[in-house]
C-alpha cells in the first residue's frame, strides 16, 4: 500500500484527499485548521501535527495551497524552519496541485532537482464538484518519468491528466486556459446581451452560436444568461460555481506571466479589468458568470 | 419546377446559384459583371438584362449583395428607378442572404409587408468553401410561414438552417456570432502566444485547452498558430479562408448595432480595433486568423 | 439691428438665446415646449408659432437640437412639411449648434449650398454654465466667408470661436475632442485610484501629475476624485456638470465616425464601453467624472 | 565640501553625476563599464574600484540602476557579497533614482531603517535632455527629514523636486504618471488620426483640442503627428526622446503595482498591450510617440 501525505485540506483539498483514501492509499494529512484534519481522520486518514511530520517516509506528497508564497515557504523553509525538501527522501514524488505562478513552481522544482528530488506542478480545474466526484483535470509540468510516476495518484482524483511540458508548464497552461475562459465568458455575455437588446431570445441565439463559429465552452456548459440552461449558476442567482475572486486571482497570474515574458494579452487584460471592477462592486463571492450583469440595463432610477 | 431569380453572383453568390441549378430549380441570374452571368449561363441559368427583369414572375428571389445600401436600393428603388418591391408578385418569396445591418433588413421587410410581400433576411456563414459544397449555414429572420416556405431553396444551398426570430433577427444573430468569433480568435491567439513565450508547445497547449474550459471553435477547426493544424490558413501563410477586411466589416456591423441599442461590447470593440489596425498595416486580404501575428515577436531589427 | 431666429430653447439653447438678446439682436424664438418660449419672451424675444415662421425674413438662424435626425428633418423637411431650406432667403446664414454626426451636417450643408444658402455646423462646448455666462466654445465647420459672417452672432454667445475646416469639420473636431476627454477622465481616474490603493494622497498625486507629463485638463479643472478640488462635481456627489448620458451620446458619435472612416480608436472605444456600463448601472444622470466610482472598492459585503 | 558616491553612470546617470561635480560636490563614481567611469573622472570625479568602495565615508549615495533586482542586490547584498547597507554610516543619506517597483523600494527602505540608515526613492522624469540640463523632475518617497536633507543634492540635478509620501511613494507616483502619459499619448494619437481620416488638418485639430477639454501634455509639448510641432521626435522620424522599450518597462511596473493592490487600470492595461505589440513589431528603440503609426493606414499592398 502506497502512502501519501496530503497538505492543505480546504474546499478542494479535502475531497481530493478523501478520494485517495477511497482508492486505497494510506493518507497522512495536515492542515492549519484542526477541524479540516478531523473530517479526513473520520474517513480513515492519519492526522499529522505538522506538514513536516506528514511528509516523512511517504511515497507521495500532494499539496493544495493558496498562493506561490505558501508553496515556496512550505517546500523551501526558511532560517527558522526546515522545508519539505530538507526532510523528504529522494524516492518521494512531490506533487503541488495549487494554482500559483509558474516562476515559483520552477524555483521549487529546481531546488528539489538539486537535491535529487522530483517536484511536479499539477494544478487542477473542475471545481469543488470535480474534486468531490474525482473527475478533476490535472495539467502537469513534469519530466516524463515524474509524469508517469504521478499517474497512480492523479488518476485517483481526476479524470483527465495532461502533460503540458517541463517544470512550470502545468501552471502556464492552466493560466492560459483560465485567461481564455474569462475572455470566452465576457465575450459570450456581451454577445448574448447585444442580441437581447435587439429583441432576440437568448436561448435561440445560444443554440445558433453554439453550433456555429462562435461555439465555445461557456455556451456548451455554463451559459451566463439566466434561465437559458438549468443547473448552472446563472439560473441560481449566480450562487455556487467558480467565484469572481478566484477568477480575479487567475487573471492576475496570467498578467504576471505576461509581464515576465513581455507578452501582450489585450483581451485577457481587459477581462481582468472588467472582473476586478465587478469584484470591487461587491460581487467577489458570486459565480464568475455573473459578469453578464455588467452588460444588462439595471432597473434603477 | 420552381423558378428562382438570383441577383449578385460574386465569390459566394455564384456557387450558391449553381447549387440551385443542381437541385433542379430554374434560375434567372443577374450581376453587374457580365462574365459572372456567363459562368452561370454555362451551367444552365437564364441571363437577365436587369435585376428587375430577373425578378419578374419567379417563385423566389435570392440576393447576395455587399452592403445595406445596395439591398435598400435594389428592393426599394428610388425616384428614377423602380425597386423589386414594385414589380414582384405577392406569391414571390424574397430572400436576402447579404450580411447587412439589421435596420436595413427590417426596413425592407416592413416595406415589403405593407405590399403583402414577404421578405426574409437569411445571412450565411461557411465561406466560399461552404458555398461551393452547399454546406452553408443560414440564419434567418422571418415569420414562421416565410421560414417554412424558404426551406426548399435554402436546403439546396446549405446544411444548417436556423430561425433566429422575426425580420432582422437573422442579421442580428449573424453579427453577434461573428463578433464572438473575432473575440475567440484574438483571445485564443494571445493565449497560445503567451504559452509559447513561456516555452510551451502550441500543439500541446491547444490540445489541453480544446478539451478544457477554454475550448472553442477556433481550437477545434481553425487554429491560428502556424502548423498546429494542417489544412487551415495559418499553415498556409494565412492565405484563403475569411479575409481580415470581411471581419472588419462584420465587426463594424456589430458596433453599429451596439450603438443603436446603447449596448456595450468591450471585447468586441477591442477586437475591432485590433483588426482595423491589422488591416491598416496592409493585412486586409489575409485570412482573419493572421491576427495571431500581432502577438508574435517580429524578427526585425 | 440684426435679426436671429433661435430654434430649440432647452438647457443650452435658452441661455444662448438670452445672450443674443443682451447683445442687441432681435430674436424670434421657437421650441416645442411653450414654457420655454415664454421664458425668452419675458426677456424680450418674439414668439413664433412654428420653426418655419421664426426663420422667415431673418439674418441668422441658430438651431440647438438633440440629434442629427431632428436637424435633417427641420432643415430638409419631408413630403408633408416644408424645411427651412425651402423658405429662408439666400442672405440668411444658417448656424446649427447641435452636436450631431458629421454626415448629417454635411448633408444639410450640401443641400443648402445647392440652393445658394450657407449652412455651418458650430457645435459648442462649455456646458450650461458656459451657455449662461456667454463663454461657450464654438467649433465651426464653414467656408471662410461663412465663418467670418457668423462671428457677430457667435461672439455674443461664446468666448472662443474656432474654425476647424469645411462643412462637417466642426462636428468632427468636437467629437474628437470629447472622445479624448473621456479617455483623459477614465485614465486619470484609474491612475489616481491606483495611487490611492498604494497609500498616496490623491491631492499630492494630482499636484505632481498636473505639472508632469501626465498633465491634462481633468487634473487642471475637473478632478474626478472627491475633495481634491472644491467646486467641481466630484466634491458634490457628482451632481451637476456634464451628464454620463451625454458623454455616452458623444462617444457614440465618435464611434459612428470611426466606423465610417474605418478608423480604429481603441482607447475611445474602451471608454465608451466603460461609460455605457456605468450608465446601465443607473448612473446616466450623474456627472461624467463619476466614472471614478467604478475603480473604487465599494463598501458592500 | 560634501561628498557623493554616484553608482550607475549610463545615459541618465552620467550627466547627473556631472551636474553634481559642477555644483561643487566631491563625487566618487562607479559603473560596470570602465569607459563610463573615465568620462566622469575627466570632469573631476574620483574613480572607485567597486560600488562598496565608492560608498564608504560619503555624505550621500545616489544610485541609477536598471531594475529592482539590481537595487536590491546592491543595497542588501547576498551570501557572497556585502551590500551598501552593511558598510555605509548612519549619517549617509541613500538616494535611489532608478525607476523600479515600489515593493523593492520599500523593502530596501525598511532594511535600511532597521539599521538606522535613511534610504529614499527618488525616480526622475525629464529624459536624457533633462539630465544634461539639470532640469530633471524628482518624485520622492521619503520621511520629511530625509526629503529635506536630500534637497541639496537633488537641486543640483533637477528643477522640480516633489515629495509624494513615505518610502515607495516616489515610485508609485512616477508609474501612475507614466501610465497616464501612455494613455494620453495613445488617446491623443487616435483622436488626431480620426480627425485626419475625416479630412481635418491635424495642426488645426491640435490647436483646438489643446485649449479645450481634450487638452493634455502631449498636445502641449510632444505632438505625436509628424510636422504638427517642430523639434519633437514625431517630426524627426520618431528618433530620440523616450524609447518605446522604456515605456513598455514603465507600463509593466504600473501593471505590477495594479496586480499587487488588486486595482483595475483598463486604459493603462490597454495602452501596455498596444505598446508591447508595437515593440514586438520592431519599434522598441523608436520614440514612444511612434504609437501614432499603428493608427495610420500603411501604404503597403
From TrEMBL, chains A, B, C, D:
Name its pathway: Amino-acid degradation; L-valine degradation
State the top-level EC class.
oxidoreductase
3-hydroxyisobutyrate dehydrogenase-like NAD-binding domain location: 168-292
Q: Which reaction does it catalyse?
A: 3-hydroxy-2-methylpropanoate + NAD(+) = 2-methyl-3-oxopropanoate + NADH + H(+)
GO terms classed as biological process: L-valine catabolic process
Q: Which residues form the 6-phosphogluconate dehydrogenase NADP-binding domain?
A: 3-165
Give the family this protein belongs to, as stated in its UniProt record. Belongs to the HIBADH-related family.
What is the protein name for this chain? 3-hydroxyisobutyrate dehydrogenase
Protein EC: 1.1.1.31
Q: Which Pfam families does this entry report, sorted A to Z?
A: NAD_binding_11 (PF14833), NAD_binding_2 (PF03446)
The record's listing under Gene3D superfamilies reads: N-(1-d-carboxylethyl)-l-norvaline Dehydrogenase, domain 2 (1.10.1040.10), NAD(P)-binding Rossmann-like Domain (3.40.50.720)
State the UniProt keywords alphabetically: Branched-chain amino acid catabolism, NAD, Oxidoreductase
Q: Which PANTHER family match?
A: 3-HYDROXYISOBUTYRATE DEHYDROGENASE, MITOCHONDRIAL, 3-HYDROXYISOBUTYRATE DEHYDROGENASE-RELATED
Q: Which domain of life is it from?
A: Bacteria
Q: Where is the active site?
A: 174
Amino acid at each position: 500500500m502506497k502512502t501519501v501525505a496530503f497538505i492543505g485540506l480546504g474546499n478542494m483539498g479535502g475531497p481530493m484527499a478523501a478520494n485517495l483514501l477511497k482508492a486505497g492509499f494510506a493518507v497522512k494529512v495536515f492542515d492549519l485548521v484542526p477541524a479540516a484534519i478531523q473530517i479526513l481522520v473520520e474517513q480513515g486518514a492519519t492526522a499529522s501535527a505538522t506538514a513536516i511530520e506528514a511528509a516523512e517516509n511517504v511515497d507521495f506528497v500532494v499539496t493544495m495551497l493558496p498562493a506561490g508564497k505558501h508553496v515556496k515557504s512550505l517546500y523551501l523553509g526558511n532560517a527558522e524552519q526546515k522545508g519539505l525538501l530538507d526532510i523528504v527522501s529522494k524516492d518521494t514524488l512531490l506533487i503541488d496541485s495549487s494554482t500559483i505562478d509558474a516562476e515559483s513552481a520552477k524555483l521549487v522544482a529546481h531546488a528539489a532537482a538539486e537535491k535529487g528530488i522530483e517536484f511536479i506542478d499539477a494544478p487542477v480545474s473542475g471545481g469543488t464538484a470535480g474534486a468531490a466526484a474525482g473527475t478533476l483535470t490535472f495539467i502537469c509540468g513534469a519530466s516524463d518519468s515524474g509524469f508517469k510516476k504521478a499517474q497512480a495518484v492523479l488518476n485517483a482524483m481526476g479524470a483527465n491528466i495532461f502533460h503540458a511540458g517541463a517544470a512550470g508548464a502545468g501552471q502556464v497552461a492552466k493560466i492560459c486556459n483560465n485567461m481564455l475562459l474569462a475572455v470566452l465568458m465576457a465575450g459570450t455575455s456581451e454577445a448574448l446581451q447585444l442580441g437581447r437588446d435587439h429583441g432576440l431570445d437568448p436561448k435561440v441565439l445560444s443554440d445558433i452560436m453554439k453550433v456555429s463559429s462562435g461555439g465555445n465552452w461557456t455556451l456548451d456548459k455554463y451559459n451566463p444568461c439566466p434561465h437559458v440552461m438549468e443547473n448552472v449558476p446563472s439560473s441560481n442567482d449566480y450562487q455556487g460555481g467558480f467565484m469572481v475572486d478566484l477568477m480575479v486571482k487567475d487573471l492576475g497570474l496570467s498578467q504576471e506571466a505576461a509581464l515576465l515574458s513581455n507578452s501582450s494579452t489585450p483581451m485577457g487584460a481587459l477581462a481582468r479589468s472588467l472582473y476586478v471592477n465587478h469584484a470591487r462592486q461587491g460581487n467577489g463571492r458570486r459565480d464568475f458568470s455573473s459578469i453578464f450583469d455588467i452588460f444588462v440595463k439595471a432597473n434603477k432610477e
